[in-house]
Design brief:
- With about 200 residues, the chain is α/β, with parallel strands linked by helices.
- It contains eight helices and five strands; from the N terminus they run H-E-H-E-H-H-E-H-E-H-H-E-H.
- The protein has helices at about 15-20, 40-50, 60-65, 75-95, 110-115, 135-140, 145-150, 180-195; strands at about 25-30, 55-60, 100-105, 125-130, 170-175.
- It has a five-stranded parallel beta sheet, sandwiched between helices.
- It is globular, with a radius of gyration of 17 Å.
- One of its GO terms (molecular function) is adenylylsulfate kinase activity.
């Protein structure tokens, strides 16, 4: 850190920003294999929360690679940097009082824990999409597993790159068993239980 860069304290705090909302700020961090349902569940949850007047923003893995992270590849180093940037962005959104949903494979525990440590206790909710790899591969919505099996894509999570299962996620969902509505309702119930949104 350059010694000439000094942190500037704002006159308005996160708590004051949150007072304008009908909910508390937090990050719902969806993690799991490609095809596990991260983006689908996050998108459906955001729609349900929007209908309740909750101020949300969804950060999706593919979308941020069109802008914020378009200079990054898929090596382990680039994946780590990708999550660092997304984590810092999500932290700013939490500071603004938003309920942030993020849908990223985010295969490494250390990076997920790094994001958890960026925000206050209770503001990081790890949602593990525990959908079996064979189910994810059978779905293959983008044809990526087929390319990875053919050697056309390197460093693909679950094929030739590791996925580190969360030790203690706040929520575990298996979209091979749950319907989309069941997953959304389970998430909403958790948010109400934690008093992040009103019951």
């Amino acid at each position: 850190m350059d010694e000439n860069i000094v942190w500037h304290n704002y006159a308005i705090t996160k708590a004051q920003r949150s007072e304008h909302k009908s909910h508390k700020p937090a990050i719902l961090w969806f993690t799991g294999f490609s095809g596990s349902g991260k983006s689908t569940v996050a998108n459906a949850l955001e729609s349900a929360l929007n209908q309740q007047g909750i101020h949300t923003y969804l950060l999706d893995g593919d979308n941020v690679r069109h802008g914020l992270c378009k200079d990054l590849g898929f090596s382990d180093e680039d994946r780590i940097e990708n999550i660092r940037r997304v984590g810092e962005t999500a932290k700013l959104m939490v500071d603004a009082g938003l309920l942030v949903l993020t849908a990223f494979i985010s295969p490494f525990r250390a990076e997920r824990d790094m994001v958890r440590n960026l925000v206050d206790d209770g503001e990081f909710i790890e949602v593990f999409l525990d959908t079996p790899l064979d189910v994810c591969e059978s779905r293959d919505p983008k044809g990526l597993y087929k390319k990875a099996r053919a050697g056309e894509i390197k460093h693909f999570t679950g094929i030739d790159s590791d996925y580190q299962i969360p030790h203690s996620p706040e929520i575990i969902l298996d979209t091979s068993k749950n319907t989309l509505d069941q997953s959304v309702q389970e998430l909403i119930a958790y948010l109400k239980q934690q008093q992040i949104i009103k019951g």
